[in-house]
Design goal:
mainly beta; elongated; 149 residues; six-stranded antiparallel beta sheet; 2 domains
Length: 149
Amino acid sequence: MRTIKFRGFNAKNNQWLYGSHIINRGKNFVAPDEFANDKTWEDYEVEPETVGQFTGLHDKNGREIYEGDILLWTRKNVHIEGRPLQDFSHKCIVYYDNDKCAFQFRCELRCGACVGYLDFDDDRADESFVEVIGNVFDNPGLIEKGGQE
């Protein structure tokens, strides 16, 4: 069974909230399973554009990966068809593709956009590390179109 939870940014308290996503009367809320007695619904209201679902995956440090996260994907000792390739690191954005019904990542590269499924089991690399380095809301400058890590 997988964990289904969301995060969203609460501007009132200037903090990220984690829990269930609720839409009521046109407003978005992210609330924990157990409500605190000293809180009101306003304390759980979030900016709708910041709501993102937990992918069920963790980075190399055990940090949960959500939609909107920016990942640094490092791959070392990559071999394709027995040939070694150059080690590389790319910054990628996590998003949900409704057409494919899957979480995916998009890396902005000089050659265009590299897109792939969010699956870090890469049997072509001896070492593959994924680390959450920020998100598109708090750190939009981490991803620059046309840039390359």
